[in-house]
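Hello,

I think I submitted the acetyl coenzyme *A job twice by accident. Can you confirm which output corresponds to this input? Input:
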Amino acid sequence: MKKYSRITGTGSFLPPRRMSNSDMVDALQARGVETSDEWIVDRTGIRARHFVDDGVFSSDLGVEACKRALESAGRTAKEIDLIIVATSTPDMVFPSTACILQNKLGANGGAAFDVQAVCSGFIYALTIADAMIRTGAAQRALVVGAEVFSRILDFDDRTTCVLFGDGAGAVVLEASSTPGILSSDLHADGKHVDILCVPGHVAGGAILGDPLLKMDGQAVFKLAVGVLEEAALAVLDKAHRTAADIDWMIPHQANIRIIQSTARKLKVPMAKVVVTVDQHGNTSAASIPLALDTAVRSGKVKLGQTLLLEGVGGGFTWGAVLLNL
Ligand code: ACO
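Support: Only one job matched these inputs. Its output is below.
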């Protein structure tokens, strides 16, 4: 019997501290940084984001998302034999956030590791978990995106600090005799490292370089629109489907203009696109599972539907997954 993997539960978690654009305007004004609700909404579609308080880490957000995903799958932590956490804001240099999360969840014993592909991280992690389940290396996985981007934002740089937020999303992915994940497509091009990066590192007990996010927004924008279309067409082609077969497109939530432009190129109407960037901002690797769970819980996305997930981020990395829920 051919083995596939299938999502059996979703969960997400946002830290309670919500920062509306007007909260951001006030906080930034106090530092002498000028921005406005009009500029942020017009250029990005973002109206609010959530930030963690001191002492809260990616693993804390991830654990809450995992508990909700397990509950919706009707599974317990003890039944999980693989945890993959996609994050660019790990709790520590090492061990992995996945190991820390595994222990907090009480899922000890199975494999656990992090994936670093910035905003494409969840697409990478889901593809790896699917491959491990199909080869029999794992039976039941938690695939998590968890980020505390507020820790790496430069609040004196108005071109980046208004864009990002914190949060986590997770899915339970299980072995199944029917598909589930239909196809995936991953890519990276390391020549674009400089257009989106946090160029600091730890050495000799100090931080060397700059540990805050740097982005050439226009370069990222242009690349993102092109590669998202390519990845979407690749997964459709691999699964012998067309854009007309998609019930919902759930793209990385970075900027409403990138989302609209990708949907237009693929001829997917915006009525079939899940949008949460207005309320969450860009939560990097967490954005796709957060959007998925939000759409499932609101009743929009239903069992049996065909979903196109796609992500793009620093590296440059990009990819897509086509699946039946
Ligand atoms: N408030 C007010 N004005 C601002 C702000 C702000 N927060 N930020 C920039 N501006 C000003 C600039 O200084 C500039 O002023 P000037 O013309 O006087 O120099 C003006 O607005 C226009 O700036 P641009 O950079 O040209 O604005 P643009 O329309 O390109 O929008 C943005 C910038 C939103 C960053 C856009 O380029 C973008 O969304 N890029 C993609 C970003 C992205 O998706 N990143 C994440 C992808 S991967 C990942 O998620 C990690």
